[in-house]
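re: ur question from yesterday

yeah so i grabbed the chain u mentioned. its 325 aa long if i counted rite. heres the sequnce exactly as i have it in my notes:
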Amino acid sequence: MNDQVVIGIDGGGSQTRVMVSDLNGNIRSYAVGGASSIHKDSNAHKNVQETIQSSLSMARCSLDQVIGLYAGIAGYDSDQDLDWVTRLTDVEGLQCPKWYVNDSVVAHAGAFIGKPGIVVVSGTGSMILAITEQETPIKNIDFHHYAASAARFLAYDAVYQILAGNIQQSDETLVRSVQSYWNVENMEQLRLLAAAGFMEESKERNKKFGDMAPIITIAAEAGSPLAQNVCDEAMKQIMVGVEILGSFFQSDHVSVMGIGSVVNSPYMKLKFNESLRFGKNKQYVYKAPELSAASGAVIKALQHVGVLVDARMIEFMRRHPHAAW
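ran it thru and got these structure tokens back, copy pasting raw so excuse formatting
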């Protein structure tokens, strides 16, 4: 029994995080690799497979010791995605049962440890997931709502606002930072670069814009009106999704937490807490995540192979340095 292990995968954001646990909740290894979504990285399949193999090597486990794998993958939004998603874990010799969900599901599992609440994922991607008191999962995309708060959207919006001339004197530092980031010397060069489409390859372009997001959130914290407007608009869209999902809870008080580089940047985190205090459908309470998304994937894997995950086991998991956010 102790020789058997499960694998939990958090394939959210720009990295893949793989955690191996025995059936008592003792984390045997933790490995980090490249992005798992083919929408973000053409090498996604190689990234995930190599990270799985690395984690098993670190845990000193063989493939036949694995009795279950549970993976949360960014970009897995419909049955049409299942083909490329299943190929991510197509490691030769890994014959165990495998389960796949959107990365927001494992983030929720780790953050709330089975309790009801809403998790807002806003970093490389954007997703809002609620699990109600009846254990019913509901996503904002079920309503065809999308909160354009992912990193690249903040950067695109900021550049468009700059190009449109929506600039105040207090935005000058931000404008210079943006020009420096794109390696141009003035507005004319930025306009020409934009008119040429910035970069030809869409994945590289989106990654370049995504990597630019900290410039915007830092500028917002420093008082740039343009950056604050961009961030505030993204937060409004997040709150629309939160309010839609919040209306499905029976309780008047709903726990909400944010996961990802954007929503946890200092300016956005402050705005998030402020916005939650003025909820319309419910009284929202900001809650810090209990465990990481990779830990959540391990919990789901253990449950799917028939292991009762109790408080003692959660405490075992907490001992690992990568089990918490």
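noticed a couple things. The longest helix spans residues 225-246. also The chain is about 45% helix and 20% strand.
anyway ttyl
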